[in-house]
């Protein structure tokens, strides 16, 4: 198994945990927005690293 995307998937998982636990807060919207921003950041980094990996392997 390749480990080039492990940190990105970890960030996406943390963001999803923020979103899931936001329902237990009195004001869930800041936690939802924070979780969505973490997920979005993780997805952007994942896409950029996937492009870099494809270029490195010559599949671009």
UniProtKB/TrEMBL annotation:
Keyword annotations from UniProtKB, A to Z: Membrane, Transmembrane, Transmembrane helix
Species classification: Bacteria, Bacillati, Bacillota, Erysipelotrichia, Erysipelotrichales
Highest taxon, organism lineage: Bacteria
Originating species: Longicatena caecimuris
Transmembrane segments: 7-23, 29-46
Record's protein name: Putative secreted protein with PEP-CTERM sorting signal
């Amino acid at each position: 198994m390749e480990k080039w995307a492990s940190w990105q998937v970890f960030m996406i998982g943390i963001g999803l945990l923020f979103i899931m636990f936001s329902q237990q807060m009195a004001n869930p919207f800041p936690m939802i927005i924070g979780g969505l921003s973490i997920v979005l950041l993780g997805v952007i980094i994942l896409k950029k690293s996937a492009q870099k990996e494809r270029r490195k392997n010559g599949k671009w």
